Amino acid sequence: MPAIPLVTVNMSEEDEDLRLVVNPDALDIIGEVDEHLAVVCVAGLYRTGKSFILNKLANQTGCFSVGSTIEPCTHGIWMKLLDSDEIDDRFARLLPRGTRVLLLDTEGLGSYARSETFDVQLFSLSVLLSSLFIYNSTGSIDEAALDKLSLVVELTKHIRIQTDEDVQDARELAAFSPAFLWVVRDFSLKLHMDGHDISARQYLDKALLPIRGDVEQVRTKNLIRSSITAFFQERECKTLVRPVSDEKLLQKLDTLPRKDFRKEFIEQLDDFTTTVFKKTRVKRLFGEAVNGRMLVNLVHNYVDAINAGSVPTIGTAWQNVVQIEGERALKESLKLYKDRMNELFSVWKVMEAEELTVKHEQYLLDAGTLFRKATVAALSGTFEEQFRTGVSTMYAEYRKQNEMDSLTLCTNLINGLVADVQLEDVTDFDELSDVWTELADEKYHLEAKGPAKYKVLCDVLKKRPLEHARRLLERSIAKEAAKAERKIKEAQDQSAVDYERLNVLYGTVDGEWKRSLAMYNDLKEENGSLIQTIARLSLAINDM
C-alpha cells in the first residue's frame, strides 16, 4: 500500500492563508492501532531525496513518491503505517516489542512555493508528532547547512508546554523533543580530524560547537547551534556517500536494483537503517506511551491550534487526549463488564448469589484490567471512581433482576409441587410429614435456584403444611365422627330390635303369667273346693 497524505495544505479563498487539512482516511488507519506507536519523521530541504530514504526504511519501492525534477514531490505530511512483516527482519528485531512504526514524510523545507512561516509551522508539527526526527541534507554539515536548520530557533516561539507560560527556551522543550538523527547524503569528506578517524556523531558534535566572535552574525550562528544542542539532546549522525557513480542513474534510484548501488553506499545505508530502528522508540508524552487513537487526537489539537493562528500547546493537547482516552476507557470497560454479565445471564437464567458474586468479581477484574490498560495514568483516579460506581450500579441491577427471576422460578416451582400433592392419599400425620420432607428436601431443592430459594420455601412451610395438617385433622375428625355416628346408629338400631324382642318376650311372659295366674286361681279354687269336699267328707266320716 503506498503512502497517503496525513496533513495537506489548502489555500483559504478569503485571506489567501495556507491552512492545514487533516485527511480523515489517514486518521482512520492510525486510530485502529491499539499498540504503542513509534513515529519516525524525515524532514529536510526539498529535492534532497527524503522520500528515497523513507522507501528504504519501509522496505518498499514507490511507497513514497520520488521525483526527478525541481518540483517538490511531497506537499504537507504523508504517512505510511508499517506492518511488522513489511520491515526487513534484520531491522524488525531491533524494535521494542509490541510497537508499530509510523513513517512521516514532511514537505521539503525552503520550497519556492512556501513561506518561511509555513516552513516553521510544518517543521513544528513534525517535531511535535515524532519520536525520532531524521533531518536529511546533502553535502556536509557546514555553516550553510546549519543556517538551513535555523528553524529550530523558531521552535521556542511556535511550541508551548502550557498555555499560561511565556516563550520558553529550547532546554525546557527538550523533555518533549524526539531523538534526532542527521543524515548527510552525498557525503564525500573523510571523517578524519587531528590525526585520527572520528565517527559521524563526533563530526556533528564538532560542527555544533560554538564559534568564536562577538559580532551579531556570530551570535546568530551560535544561537542556531545552541538551540539544536539544547532542543535535541539525544543526537546521532550518519553519512551516506553518493549512491551511484553514473549521473543518469540518480534519476532512477528508487527502482534501481541493490546490486547497481555502490558497495560503500549499501554498507552505509544498512548501517543508517540499523541506527534508525535502534533509535526508533515509542512516542511518549508526560511519561505515557502513545497509541494510534492518542496520536489522532494530538494531530487534531495541533493542527487546530496552527490553523487558528495560535501556538500548539503540548499540555493542552495532552489533557484533551487524556480526557478522551479516559472517557473511551470508561465506556469500553463498562461495556465489557455489561457484555460479560449479559452473556452469563443468557446461559444461566437464574444464579446462586455466591456464583453471581464470583462472576462479578471476575468480570470486575477483567474490566478493571482493560480500564487501567486503556486509560492514561494522569486521569486514572478521576475515571476510576466513575468506573467503580458504574460497575456497582450495574451489579446492583443484575442482583435485583436475579432475585426477581429466582423468586418467580421458585414460586412457580413450589406452587406446582404443592398442587401435585395428593392429600386424599395421606392417611396420617407421619405420612404427611414424609410427603413434605420429600417435597422440600428432594423435589424442590433439585430445581430451585437463586437467592430466593430458601425464602420462598420458608414462606410456604409457614402456611401450606399447616393447611394440609388442618385439612387432614378435619378429615380425621370427620371420619371419626362418622364412625361414631355409625356406632350410635347401630346401637340405636340394636336397641330397637332388642326392645321389640323384649316387648315380644314381655308379651309372651305376661300372657304366660296371666295364664299361670288363671291356672293358679283355678287350682286355688279347685283346691278350695277340694278342701271343702274333704272337710265334708271328714265330717261325713266323723258322722259315720
TrEMBL record:
Q: Which domain of life is it from?
A: Eukaryota
Gene Ontology terms, MF aspect: GTP binding; GTPase activity
Q: Which residues form the GB1/RHD3-type G domain?
A: 34-281
Q: Aminoacyl-tRNA synthetase: present as a keyword of the record? A: no
Cited PROSITE patterns: G_GB1_RHD3
| The keyword Nucleotide-binding is assigned to this record | yes
What are the alphabetically sorted keywords of the record?
Answer: GTP-binding, Hydrolase, Nucleotide-binding
Family of the protein in this entry:
Belongs to the TRAFAC class dynamin-like GTPase superfamily. GB1/RHD3 GTPase family.
Q: What is this protein called?
A: GB1/RHD3-type G domain-containing protein
